[in-house]
Amino acid sequence: MSYTRPSANSFFEKLRRLLTVNPESNTGVPITGTYRTPAPGSQPKTYIHPLTKHSDLAQNYYYDRDARRNFPRLAMYTQNDVAKLIAVSNLKSISAGEGGSNESTQVTTIPEDLSLTEAIAFGPALYSHEKLPPIPGRPSYKWKKSEDAVKPQLGFQI
Asked: Domain of 111?
């Protein structure tokens, strides 16, 4: 069964078959009663939007949906906070011995009004004349002229 109608006049149908590359091709005009019934725009049921939490306008705030301003929260550290963190990292606690007994545990307190310069000066020196910071590597290769390169010739060759 074909969903397209033949041409209206048999004379023009014969002429079309004579002049076309593929005589079995059709016009492409669909038959009214058989093609896409019912039509997509005339469906008997109407579309119902699904209910989601975003459908409720009272609880759908703009700042929750705005992704442009969705930045991570910033943390503020004062110099006293940084000094306390440095002082805590410099403290060394004695762990339990090999036998499993706690021989001694050193407990120290950090003063509340510790300044940053005092905390840096209190800690061990990171680098000294004997213990220097790492140096970036230096290249160990040497540039030399290539022996197999063809030298350009001056002037024209004929």
From this structure: 79-94+103-122
